[in-house]
Amino acid sequence: MSGILRLRLSALYALQFAVWGCYLSCFGQLLGASGLGASIQWFYAAVGIVSLFTPVLMGYVADRFIASVRLLGLCHLGASVVMTAAWVYAASRPTMDFGAFFPLYLGFLAFYMPTMALSNTTAFGILKANGLRPVDHFPSIRIWGTIGFVAAMWFVNSAYFYDGSFGFTLDDSVPAARFRFQYTSMQLLSAAVFGLLTAIYTLTLPRVEPTAPKRGPGLPILRSFALFRDPQVRNFLIFAVFAGVCLQISNGYAIPYINHFMADARYAGSFAAGNATMLFSLSNISEALCVLLVGVSLKRFGVKWVIALALLAWSLRFLLLGAGNPGDGLWLLVGSMLVYGIGFNFFNIAGNIYMDSVSDSTNRGFGQGLLMMMSNGIGASCGMIAAGAVVNHYCRWQPVSTPGGTVMPLFMGDWTAPWLIFAAYALAVTVLICLFLRNSKT
Prior knowledge:
Layout: H1 2-21, H2 27-33, H3 40-51, H4 54-64, H5 68-91, H6 98-129, H7 134-158, E1 159-162, E2 165-168, H8 186-202, H9 220-228, H10 231-244, H11 249-259, H12 271-274, H13 276-290, H14 293-301, H15 303-323, H16 330-358, H17 364-394, E3 395-401, E4 407-413, H18 416-436
Antiparallel strand pairs: 1-2, 3-4
């Protein structure tokens, strides 16, 4: 029975993260090609802005009024509808207006971002209802989210719709290569389809009814004080803000950075420069390989040293990105992708497990939403706004001839300086965590 249950939850995470995998890493290239390249930071900061409110609100609702799995399905359905509208807008014009497209994207995020915490609440609730400990089983379930994310990235990297025909290619020199989904609005349609499939799939999962009383503190923000009264939890959430700064930077800028090598005669036509989304997927493969280490590391070393190692990995990731290239420096780019597994998992999954362990049965959904608010909300939004200012200071979008004989917008400039600045920041946060965060084993 437990094996079937884990398989069903694994399928949920594969679909859940496939939605994000369709567009998250290659969205910046689409924005640049559509005339919104100077605003990339605002679209990725929007993930954080929306995470300030909706995950906590939906977590509160899931704790009291609606079974989390049903609320999860409703959110995915709403996200799919809005993303379809965004695709229709993007596909109907060569350039997009920020004032029209950004609200559509905000609407998608308002529905989608709560699903990140709701899927955790759903999985933890179902596991506990069946006598299974999340710390033992969740990492092996969560790994399928990474697999779904990678599969979606490979799909949009190679799939194209060109001259009325659909196909796949990895050859950047053929005419159809410029119409692969990683460059076009079809990445948005792909995300909408996976969102609809996820919404339908949630109807097959068992319900875990809300355990908190429907009456109580009326405003979700009031619930935060119960958790913030614990100084250890409070310090952890504060550091989650500083760590969250790193979460979206490479998602927003790594693909445009790798693509910009297509303008360099030394690397034009190289597999890595023309298949940046597939190269970037090594990050998520690394995530899958490292995910099973989280539970063991938490038990052995405690949350302080697991989070510190995560920030050290982020620093190394940024440093290797700045030093690498698709030629003789390809191993540095690959190394940057590989350390991502430690940076992402040792912060996100360890944080999810830690917050579940310190929350009581009446506010577990709120606890997951609160972590999402602090890291992906305050931290990621502030981090992306600052990162955008840094990158735009050194780099500019401009039309460049590519190996296929076409001209496409690429993000050109001195990329080394921004990556070094980001690496120094992550290293500084690592030192602060080692000095001031108190350790706790879950």
